[in-house]
Amino acid sequence: MNIYNDAGELLFGTRLKRLSERFLFNITKIYKTLDIPFEPAWFPMFFILYRYGPKSVTEIAELLDITHSAVSQQATILERKGLLHFIPSDSDRRKRLLNFTKDGLALLEQIQPVWQSIKRNMQRLLLDNPNSVNILPALTEIEETSVNKDLFARVLQDLREHHFTIMDIIPFSSEYETEYKALILDWMINNENTKFEDADFLNKPGSVKKNNSGSITLAKPEQEIAGTVVTKYLNAADAQILFLMVKKDWQQRQIGRILLMDAIKNLRNDGFTSVTAYFDRKHIAALKVLKSCGFKLFAMHHGLEKNHADKTILQFTLNLKE
Q: Under a CB-based contact definition with an 8 Å cutoff, are residues 179 and 225 in contact?
């Protein structure tokens, strides 16, 4: 069993970190063995000043693609150790440039043979295997690609495209009343035989919380209301899911399940012990959500629609004490 092979790209960062730590451990060991007072963390700044001459903190930060603060902290450490100091720029006396001190130049002379040996042996190491020789160009490609679009942006886009949504779950407020009522209307259009007996949940949604008659929760991915779950309080212990709706364009993205799980959590926190839901057996998506959230089929209620087609309502229950 090889966890690194099994996990593949999922352990990419971990493997890079492990390889880097192992490499830096060996480099540190080399300097200590040779009794050279140099730390691997100083190398980038030493190399830049050696290769390109005096540079400002801002210029070094840009070359290394790190923050100004990080370079400034490193410069302060090396300045205190007497290895670097600031000098005025020849072209602009107000501009301060980092440069080697006399002690810094002496240390640079000591470590240059070590750098050359490390480079030679790294080249040999990379040539030992056919794929290893491409690691430095590959790293450059990954770094350049991630500048244009980093992993964070890529993963979020991919999750959205593959039916996973990053969103806020929020309680009803008056600013969302129009969108909420539009959701209810869409439901009624698609379910023409729906009986909306609890008028306040549609006509006066703002009064629901005020009267403690139930709760209305909304799903807000990005900048729109995409779904809602409406819960009615039957008494101090029992509640009923009146509606669970998600806009057509936002379906198949786990929004219904997230809304229902949030409603269940809130009911438990408020001391309710059971919750009931009634859904037409034709609403396959809603039935799957109920099942995934732990609801159990309690009863079937048969009836006929106006066109004499069978209309079977399934009653589900969930014990909140379990």
A: yes
SS3 per-residue string spanning the chain? CCHHHHHHHHHHHHHHHHHHHHHHHHHHHHHHHCCCCCCHHHHHHHHHHHHHCCECHHHHHHHHCCCHHHHHHHHHHHHHCCCEEEEECCCCCCCEEEEECHHHHHHHHHHHHHHHHHHHHHHHHHHCCCCHHHHHHHHHHHHHHHHHCCHHHHHHHHHHHCCCCCEEEEECCHHHHHHHHHHHHHHHHHCCCCCCCCCHHHHCHHHHHHCCCEEEEEEEECCCCCEEEEEEECCCCEEEEEEEEECHHHCCCCHHHHHHHHHHHHHHHCCCCEEEEEEECCCHHHHHHHHHCCCEEEEEEEEECCCCCEEEEEEEEEECCC
Under 8 Å between Cβ of 277 and 316: yes
Sheet of strand 214-221: strand arrangement? 167-171, 214-221, 227-233, 238-246, 274-280, 310-319, 296-304
Low-confidence residues of the chain: pLDDT under 50: 307-308
Residue-range domains of the chain with CATH: 36-148 (1.10.10.10), 167-319 (3.40.630.30)
Residue pair 171/215 in contact (Cβ under 8 Å)? The answer is yes
Q: How many whole angstroms separate alpha carbon 321 and alpha carbon 314?
A: 22
pLDDT of residue 189: 74
Backbone torsions φ then ψ of 269, nearest 5 degrees: -65, -30
pLDDT in tens, 122-175: 999 888 888 888 888 888 888 888 877 788 777 767 766 665 556 788 999 999
**Tens digits of per-residue pLDDT, 190-217?**
665 555 666 778 888 888 888 888 999 9
Which of 302, 231, 299, 288 is closest to 257 using CA atoms? Answer: 288
Spatial contact of 99 and 87, defined as CB atoms under 8 Å apart: yes
Structural tokens at position 38: 């140099």
